[in-house]
Amino acid sequence: MTRTVVISGGGTGIGLATAHRFAADGDQVLLVGRRARVVREAAERVPGAHAVAADLATAEGAEQVAQLVKAEYGAVDVLVHGAGGNGLLEPDAAVGGSGPVADAAHHWTANFRLNVLTAVLLTEALRHRLASPGGRVLFLSSIAAYRGSGSTAYAASKAALHPYAFDLARQLGRHGITVNLVAPGYVEGTGFFGPEGMPSERREELAAETFTGRIGTPGDVAETLYWLASHAAGHLTGQCVQVNGGAQLGR
After folding, report:
1. Which helix (H) or strand (E) holds 234?
2. What is the distance of C-alpha 20 from the center of its chain?
3. Given 154, 164, 186, 226, which residue is catalytic?
């Protein structure tokens, strides 16, 4: 049966790989992203996909998506939260001053806006449209939520998704809806580290931290998300699946 799959951050990286995976199985995919051109061009490369540009860090943006879903699809079978990113790459914003405190305020606000608000607001906008039973809600966490990272604000924003997802799992479970998270390690091809990418020396260090001896790919994460959305994973909820080659365990 064809499912309706809504993927935020679907224009690039993990979100786009996930869109291709669901579309390959015949599901209808709606890609959501801030950048109209990026998300539109991505949809053109994914069979049968559609796109909508919206800022999910605002109530207006999330409600815009909800209205489109109501009009065009009715219900959502799978909701994948791929939107997010590195607050260090966001444009400077006025934060009422300059110096370390103002910098911290901007950095922490940017990370929680990108990684928490986008997921929470879209979920709240669509929660009454989730297929019942059988709906799936999937969040992208990070290995940083467990181990920290060079950006404490980013790690904290990803960790903040966990209690929200666990509470949703409790609330929605009685309706036959599951809620899970996936925590990738370093994944190539996402643009997370900016146009220059990861320095080669650091890349080798991260590969050496895994038990598999390799860097993750968007496809690794997409396949896990696809399985979590399947009937086979119907009794798995309130969990965080680690997709990082064992790196979260340390060497």
Report:
1. none
2. 15
3. 154
* Residue 164 among the catalytic residues: no
CA distance 136 to 33: 20
The token pair that represents 206 in the structure block:
């991260």
| C-alpha–C-alpha distance, residues 173 and 64, integer Å | 26
CA dist 58 and 45 (Å) reads: 27
pTM of the predicted protein model? 0.93
Residue range 177-220, pLDDT digits in tens: 999 999 999 998 776 666 667 688 888 888 899 999 999 999 99
Helix (H, G, I), strand (E, B) or coil at 77: coil
- Write the DSSP symbol of residue 114: I
The pLDDT tens digits for 32-74 are: 999 999 999 999 999 999 999 999 999 999 999 999 999 999 9
The CATH number of domain 4-249 is 3.90.226.10: no
- Judge contact between 115 and 161, C-beta under 8 A: yes
Other C-beta atoms within 10 Å of 34: how many? 19
Q: Domain map of the chain by residue range?
A: 4-249
CB atoms within 10 A of CB 212: 12
Residue 139, strand partner residues: 81, 181
Is 178 in a helix, a strand, or coil?
Answer: strand
